[in-house]
Design a protein that fits this description.
Nucleotidyltransferase, domain 5; 2 domains; 4-stranded mixed β-sheet; 3-stranded antiparallel β-sheet; 5 helices; 36% helix
């Protein structure tokens, strides 16, 4: 039975006190099998280890390809496709106030209120509500979709007791788009272009 379970292992039967060597043979077979698997894993992983110099070369090539991907002249000839984000600055940890975060993807639209409070440690409170987007709205016109988004935002602000508040927001739109400026984008929904 042991030879059938692990045919590539060296099975040795050792005498036990009761005269049966089955338990010792099983342990020996399993130990040999695990050792062989470990050796094979190490052999494969060794081919994937990179030296410090190789890692710097990978970094250099990635940086070069990303720069080429952002370049209008070579954008189509690069292996790493890049899109400019038009982000003008990054966070530094001193931000405070209320912000809306919008996430549209698939059949749902999530609205979040993110409240950053400046204390000894930055404190973040988040409140969210998820709205369903029905099939008719998803397959309708861009105007219908964005009307629905406005309705959801207004409903959320009412829910949070902030009706009429004017808040900065970030918008995640999980669909293909072509962004040409910070405040200008063309979305591609079901092969329909919305500017």
């Amino acid at each position: 039975m042991v030879r059938r379970l692990v045919p590539d292992c060296d099975v040795r039967f050792l005498q036990s006190q009761c005269g049966s060597g089955k338990g010792a043979a099983m342990v020996t077979a399993v130990a040999h099998r695990l050792a062989a698997q470990h050796t094979e894993r190490q052999r494969i992983l060794d081919t994937l280890r990179l030296s410090r110099e190789q890692l710097f070369e990978v970094k250099r090539r990635m940086t070069e390809e990303m720069a080429r991907g952002l370049s209008k002249q070579t954008h189509d000839q690069t292996s790493v496709k890049m899109l400019p984000t038009y982000v003008q600055s990054t966070l530094n940890g001193t931000e405070q106030g209320d912000f809306l975060a919008l996430d549209l993807g698939g059949s749902s639209f999530r609205v979040l209120l993110v409240q950053l409070k400046s204390e000894k440690k930055q404190k973040v409170d988040m409140h969210q509500k998820i709205y369903r987007i029905d099939q008719e709205t998803m397959q309708g016109t861009g105007e219908e979709l964005f009307d629905h988004i406005v309705y959801c935002i207004a409903d959320f602000l009412d829910y949070m007791g902030m009706r009429g508040a004017s808040l900065p927001l970030g918008f995640t739109f999980s669909f293909p788009c072509d962004q040409t400026k910070l405040d200008e984008v063309t979305f591609f929904l079901d092969f329909t272009c919305i500017s």
